[in-house]
Design a protein that fits this description.
The longest helix is centred in the first third of the chain and has 12 residues. Strands 1, 2, 3, 4, 7, 10, 11, 12, 13 and 14 form a ten-stranded mixed β-sheet that branches. Strands 16-20-19-18-15-17 form a six-stranded mixed β-sheet. A two-stranded antiparallel ribbon has the order 5-6. The protein has three domains: 88 residues, Pseudouridine synthase, CATH 3.30.2350.10; 111 residues, Pseudouridine synthase (2-Layer Sandwich), CATH 3.30.2350; 65 residues, Archaeosine Trna-guanine Transglycosylase, Chain: A, domain 4, CATH 2.30.130.10. The protein contains six helices and 20 strands. It is an alpha+beta fold and 305 residues long.
């Protein structure tokens, strides 16, 4: 089977790192041009979009939102802010109704300041935080702004101190930090018990596939390879009008912009990157229009095939 450029939404199983998945797909496809859209911790399962071939160049243009289903264990604080780390402290949790607990979660809704876990991939003076933590180095991480678009309390088990939440958030949000900080707000402790990502960068769990199901690649796997242009449906589109404009584009030259000469998608945003296609709906790359709306500038140009 000839593997074309595009994306595969992997349903990552527990115990695998994101790079493990990339390595396996490189081996299966016989190509080095494979990349993931963002690290997923080994103990976290769920949606991991993988880019193949030229699709790796478009990762930055994918939607950035992610959605998780997570379980938080109250009463326990660990070194890693999840149940895989060394236990640092235990403390009783308060008696709360579902409604009362949901009100406490308001502290994590909207745009908030969040301190990442010390065992994380955040850079500290040029080194990953988790590497410093493994060496027992003392350091502090600065809070950063993240957006929690939705936080729903699905379940609350008062007896065992376990709550299940659904979180839709911006890239760079740590659900482990929510677990840790919720424990502190409740005058208790908290850590992440279990986490599954159900969507990421426009890809969903329901359309994902396990790597083990890709081990024998053949035509039946073709539907799981999502064309790059389909992953960019959220981005405005311009169709180049003629071969001269295509030639200009493919040689990286600026094209004079006249809105009357271009075919645009229905909803069009001049301030954001634009995907460029030809009349056959072949993706040619990404560009932007200058503020005066007089020129089209190439930003990412795919090689002519």
């Amino acid at each position: 089977m000839e593997i074309k450029d595009g994306f595969i939404a992997i349903n990552k199983e527990k115990g695998f790192t994101s790079h493990d998945c990339v390595k396996q797909i490189r081996k299966l496809l016989g190509t080095k041009k494979v990349g993931h859209t963002g690290t997923l911790d080994p103990d976290v399962t769920g949606t991991l979009p993988i880019a193949i071939g030229s699709a790796t160049r478009f990762i930055q243009y994918l939607p950035q939102g992610k959605t998780y289903i997570g379980q938080i264990q109250l009463g326990i604080r660990t070194k890693t802010d999840d149940m895989q780390g060394e236990i640092l402290n235990k403390k009783d949790w308060p008696v709360l109704s579902h409604k009362q607990l949901d009100k406490y979660l308001n502290n994590f809704r909207g745009i908030i300041q969040q301190v990442p876990p010390k065992v994380s991939s955040v850079h500290v003076n040029g080194e990953r935080a988790y590497k410093k933590a493994l060496k027992n180095e003392e350091f502090e991480l600065k809070p950063k702004e993240v957006e929690i678009e939705e936080l729903v309390l699905n379940k609350w088990d008062q007896i065992n101190g376990i709550l299940e939440i659904k979180v839709s958030c911006s890239s760079g949000t740590y659900i482990r930090s929510i677990a840790r900080d919720l424990g502190g707000i409740l005058d208790s402790e908290g850590c992440l018990l279990k986490l599954k990502r159900i969507s990421a960068c426009g890809f969903h769990e329901k359309n994902s596939i396990k790597i083990s199901d890709l081990s024998d690649l053949n035509d039946k796997n073709a539907p799981f390879i999502i064309p790059t242009i389909s992953a960019l449906d959220h981005i405005s589109t311009l169709i180049l009008a003629n071969q001269e404009e295509i030639n200009f584009w493919q040689t990286g030259r600026i094209i004079k912009f006249d809105a009357n000469n271009f075919v645009k998608s229905r909803s069009f945003d001049y301030k954001k990157p634009i995907k460029i296609i030809d009349h056959n709906k072949i993706l040619l790359g990404m560009g932007f229009i200058n503020e005066e709306k007089t020129t089209l500038h190439p930003k990412l140009v795919l090689n002519a095939k």
